[in-house]
Amino acid sequence: MPRKVVQGPIRDKEKTKQKLLAAVGKILRVKGYSGLKVSKIAAVAGFDKKLIYEYFGSTDKLIDEYIKSQDYWSQVNKDVEVDYSDGGHELTKMVVLNQFENLKKNKELQKIILWELSENKPILKKLVEQREEVGEVLFGNISDPYFGEGVAMRHRAIMALIVSGAYYLNLYTGYNASVFCGIDLKTEEGRKEIEQAIVELIDFAYSKKK
């Protein structure tokens, strides 16, 4: 006789963890970050709140894991197989254009970015530090050696403006209006104009190599 498989949270830890993480996303999307209370997360997931402590250690650690899973820059593959001989020129285009598209689709990440801008919390500071760590790998190992001393810092400044602009335009479209500088960002044509501008700005940044 085949052995009976016992179902439930104890037997299916990973599935339970995913449901708890999904509950964080649902609450964040519907109620915002103020709704992320341990009892509410447990209720939405359909489990006892003690499982949050058992599987994650604390509510903050559960939220931290969820945020990291959603954050685009935390998921950028540092080992992506591309030719770095151009100082990351093509890689930069790829990751920034992907960021621009990713943030448009990910409403939970939009909420997280707004949360970062409105509250000073250790969990959000940690996320910012993780993004900076990823950025430092890309800058320090790829673009800085390519540009050399002096020019490398200017390149970082240009990229800061491009990346922050990609963030802002998506948040503006998602929460305020669709038209910015006369460009309708809710249309495919409007977004393609922004994408082309991103490419041209990155090309400009790389033209500054001495």
Describe this protein's structure.
This protein is mostly helical and 210 residues long. It has two domains: 9-69, Homeodomain-like (Arc Repressor Mutant, subunit A), CATH 1.10.10.60; 72-207. Helix content is 70%, strand content 2%. It is built from ten helices and two strands. The chain has helices at 13-30, 38-45, 50-56, 59-70, 72-75, 89-105, 107-118, 122-147, 151-175, 188-206; strands at residues 179-180, 183-184. Strands 1-2 form a two-stranded antiparallel sheet. β1 and β2 (183-184) form a beta hairpin. α1 (13-30) crosses α2 (38-45), α6 runs parallel beside α9 and α7 (107-118) packs across α9. It is globular, with a radius of gyration of 21 Å. Keywords: DNA-binding. This is Transcriptional regulator, TetR family. GO terms for molecular function: DNA binding.
